[in-house]
Amino acid sequence: MPAIVLLGAQWGDEGKGKVTDLLGERVDYVVRYSGGNNAGHTVITPDGQKYALHLMPSGALSPNAIIVIGNGVVVDPKILLQEIDGLNERGVDVSRLRISGDAHLIMPHHRALDRVVERYLGSSRIGTTGRGIGPAYGDKVARMGIRVQDLLDPGILRKKLELALREKNQILFKVYNRKAMDVDAVVEEYLGYAERLKQYIAETRTILWDALDRGENVLLEGAQATMLDMDHGTYPFVTSSNPTAGGACVGAGIPPTAITKVIAVSKAYTTRVGSGPFPTELFDEFGQHLRKIGHEYGTTTGRERRCGWFDAVVARYASRLNGVTDLVVTKLDVLSGLEKVPICVGYEIDGERVDDMPMTQTDFHHAKPVYEELDGWWEDISQARTEAELPKNARRYIARIEELCNTRVSVVGVGPGRDENVVRHQLI
What we know:
The protein has about 425 residues and is α/β, with parallel strands linked by helices. It contains twelve helices and 20 strands. β16 and β17 form a beta hairpin.
């Protein structure tokens, strides 16, 4: 049963969409298993077309793959329909989309609470996108969530919404001095979405089980990344779901024994959006250089990404946590033209050298990177397609990452395009 997990090894934005698109023609199903429209995948097709996807699995651009939004995703139906319409307008067939009836819906009160609570926190804010993802997952855990399947039953939809707004309207109005939500207006809005989405709603677990039984390739696509995992990331500066390999089983409804390969994607340096600790963050001209040359601005928010050197402690942690079999290193071309390229090989905490992730939030916040400097390269590597075509120092850099992470680097990205890669080992 060949299930493959594709996930991020850092704090997101590593280029997972490009890898999904690269594999899309060789897999039969692409499944999004976590997150919501707080994630963004940018895909550039061979003819130069650029697509920014948020809820739709990146496999939407593959001509044959069935694309699935799993039960672990929280769905904003308005945003999803906007993406469907946008893809249809550009000639992309989305009739292959299937949405789990057990996925939870993002409701208007989730978005309102997300924005107002974040503002209320002030300097202690998490740095959320304000799209309602956290509150939607909170209601899911509190067993008062509204699911995609509820769109098919107007009576259940209204009953669940009335129950939720009984509490949420009190909070919005009495605590934050915001306007209460009107049940009738929300029901009418969401039943409108239901009319258009019902053709896509399905029992996706059975679909995936049957596909695996037939020996078809199922690609499980994570949003965000390892260090944003609710349980294993830099809590509380994390997302509200589990984008790690273990989350793939829960968020798609497949058994762990079905997973045969775990592909992790990492940039050749490190970026992060939002608040939270970031040991290798650069505040100098090198940070500006990485941001400018790497076009480091959020796909979903447009926010400037924080930039830093490659953190091998984080990458090694992600490799061990997820059981990574193949590492994809993207954006190596961004490092061209630098005299020296540092790699963080450990941390110094209270005067002591640490080679693994610190246990406590406090220690990680105070961790100072221990760098190993490698010689840089000046050549333009965007045309390289084989390892031999990479400069010697670029090859040494990749070899050192491989050694530090104890995981083979199978693909190296040398540009944003689908074909701008050096393939060292075939992923499939």
